[in-house]
Amino acid sequence: xxxxxxxxxxxxxxxxxxxxxxxxxxxxxxxxxxxxxxxxxxxxxxxxxxxxxxxxxxxxxxxxxxxxxxxxxxxxxxxxxxxxxxxxxxxxxxxxxxxxxxxxxxxxxxxxxxxxxxxxxxxxxxxxxxxxxxxxxxxxxxxxxxxxxxxxxxxxxxxxxxx
Length: 163
Hints:
Elements: E1 2-5, E2 8-11, E3 20-26, H1 34-37, H2 39-52, E4 56-62, E5 66-72, H3 80-92, H4 102-107, E6 118-121, H5 125-141, H6 156-161
Antiparallel strand pairs: 1-2, 3-5, 3-6, 4-5
């Protein structure tokens, strides 16, 4: 929930350890294809972050300018924001900077990512399945492919093989 207090935003996030959470994370430039152009860089960033701060990937899809995923955090852990900070900074390192505003410069940002991301704590098994399906079907929704399995940057392939 977003509330405004004197012009500043106040994000209220559930503090649930071991939660399953759906995320949408977006590039600053919504016309960019950077995420699929640099898919190996993104995979390395995620792999390194998971090695330091474990989490389960229940679903993930990477589109040219944004991605959706469902993670489950370990029992006793609720710190998904540090994980996202690490993934985004590792991915961005050594890439050319995007258009920078003074706020980007002040925070040492590269102007590649939208600063915020959207998250939704999964409520039950039906909610989990709906968000996994959303991840899988998103490339079809955006007109990138005709079937979900035709999109190469999706956990659907891992999950189909696991059945």
